[in-house]
């Protein structure tokens, strides 16, 4: 009897095993919280239980795959490379990830070259005060090629014949926030100018030194570059361009011995995102620059709600930046650095949903997770009242049909 459907069953089981194995690998590699990992395990257990009555060897196969994975995983990790004597160049250190990363890299023994926008600013002065004399501060706006060029000359002068071990592309901006139609062209260009073209110019400039040392490139990107977060089109598009560039670079630099990693942080409280006055100013400017007809159709209250929601989201962001710093150190010092580091709670789950769930579910998840708008654009409000009425009517009809059956 069993022989009749043995082949299709084994094919089915093979596919299932690959899927479950892949899912487990993804979940476990993503620094998920213990709770989510437990849920995944429970899911796998339920699955195994359901398969049990069908075929014992198949169940054993699934277990074997999981055990094999664990066996390879728990083999002792080769220890990190020494930081001493290695030079690292890191951009955007006035505040945020740059600020804390520089201090940590300095304490580990790296020779740190840190760029800031303002050498006389609080951030730069604090770094100068708290770090060792090995720290070199450079004033660089990465959108200005001459300044990047000057930083390269200064770095070379200090390095002498030595190469550069690490480049940490940290500088980035999120110029504005809102529906794509309400985002100014200057916002799209502003994001591209810093996040993409600035990083591109820095990376190209320092590559000869990095190839010389067979070093590392570590780029701080964002999940907004992989997934369509509502209201983040300008920022997300620039990070998407950045992701594609660094992924291509990773393959091209492999023969040179240069390893390329991308860090994908969840939401953190960094300099700009918690700067209330900055966002109020941006909001004012946006209201003044939008064409009046467009503002009329969306409504000023709609634009203001988006800004308020973003600010409350930013105020709830994680103030402890250490998962990102830890990921940067891993990418710089692990003998075999990963291509991607998911830094922060929940981010692994977010990517899991994005990769394995249907589009409709992952999009809804993003909308629930991020700013939850209550207001419709003004021009749609009347219309939506009408639609709501229609759909209620339809539902009633459906209910009646149900009852008739
Ligand atoms: C830099 O980080 C420290 C914590 O290490 C924090 O206290 C300080 O406010 C930060 N400075 C800036 C300018 O963001
Ligand atoms: C950086 O950009 C400037 C201006 O576009 C260009 O002249 C320079 O060659 C770029 N640097 C590299 C290394 O490509």
UniProtKB/TrEMBL annotation:
Keywords: Lipid metabolism, Membrane, Oxidoreductase, Steroid metabolism, Transmembrane, Transmembrane helix. It comes from the Eukaryota. GO terms for biological process: glucocorticoid metabolic process. InterPro entries: NAD(P)-bd_dom_sf (IPR036291), Sc_DH/Rdtase_CS (IPR020904), SDR_fam (IPR002347). It catalyses: an 11beta-hydroxysteroid + NAD(+) = an 11-oxosteroid + NADH + H(+); 11beta,17beta-dihydroxyandrost-4-ene-3-one + NAD(+) = 17beta-hydroxyandrost-4-ene-3,11-dione + NADH + H(+); 11beta-hydroxyandrost-4-ene-3,17-dione + NAD(+) = androst-4-ene-3,11,17-trione + NADH + H(+); corticosterone + NAD(+) = 11-dehydrocorticosterone + NADH + H(+). GO terms for molecular function: 11-beta-hydroxysteroid dehydrogenase (NAD+) activity. Pathway: Steroid metabolism. The keyword Disulfide bond does not apply. Belongs to the short-chain dehydrogenases/reductases (SDR) family. This is 11-beta-hydroxysteroid dehydrogenase type 2. It comes from Parambassis ranga. The gene is hsd11b2.
């Amino acid at each position: 009897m069993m022989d009749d459907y043995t082949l299709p069953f084994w094919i089915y089981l093979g596919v299932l095993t690959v899927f479950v194995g892949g899912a487990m690998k993804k979940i476990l590699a993503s620094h998920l919280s213990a709770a989510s990992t437990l849920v995944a395990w429970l899911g796998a257990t339920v699955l195994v239980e359901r398969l049990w009555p069908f075929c014992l060897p198949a169940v054993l196969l699934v277990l074997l795959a999981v055990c094999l994975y664990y066996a390879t995983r728990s083999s002792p990790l080769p220890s990190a490379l020494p930081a001493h004597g290695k030079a690292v160049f890191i951009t955007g250190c006035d505040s945020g990830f740059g600020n804390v990363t520089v201090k940590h890299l300095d304490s580990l023994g790296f020779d740190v070259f840190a760029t800031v926008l303002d050498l006389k600013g609080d951030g730069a002065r604090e770094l100068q005060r708290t770090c060792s004399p090995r720290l070199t501060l450079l004033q660089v706006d990465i959108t200005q090629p001459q300044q990047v060029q000057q930083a390269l000359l200064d770095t070379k002068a200090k390095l002498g014949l030595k190469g550069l071990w690490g480049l940490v592309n940290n500088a980035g901006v999120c110029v504005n926030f809102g529906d794509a139609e309400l985002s100014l062209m200057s916002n799209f260009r502003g994001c591209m100018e810093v996040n993409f073209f600035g990083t591109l110019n820095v990376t190209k400039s320092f590559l000869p030194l990095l190839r010389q040392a067979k070093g590392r490139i570590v780029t701080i990107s964002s999940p907004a570059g992989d997934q369509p977060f509502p209201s983040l089109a300008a920022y997300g598009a620039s990070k998407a361009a950045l992701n594609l560039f660094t992924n291509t670079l990773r393959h091209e630099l492999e023969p040179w011995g240069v390893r390329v990693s991308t860090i994908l942080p969840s939401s953190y409280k960094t300099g700009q995102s918690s700067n209330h006055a900055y966002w109020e100013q941006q909001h004012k400017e946006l209201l003044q620059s939008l064409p009046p007809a467009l503002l009329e159709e969306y409504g000023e209250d709609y634009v203001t709600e988006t800004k308020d929601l973003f600010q409350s989201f930013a105020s709830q962001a994680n103030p402890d930046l250490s998962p990102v710093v830890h990921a940067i150190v891993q990418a710089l010092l692990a003998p075999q650095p990963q291509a991607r580091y998911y830094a922060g709670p929940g981010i692994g789950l977010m990517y899991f949903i994005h990769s394995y769930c249907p589009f409709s579910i992952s999009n809804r998840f993003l909308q629930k997770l991020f700013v939850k708008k209550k207001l419709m654009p003004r021009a749609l409000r009347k219309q939506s009242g009408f639609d709501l009425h229609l759909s209620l009517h339809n539902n009633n009809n459906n209910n009646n049909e149900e009852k008739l059956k």
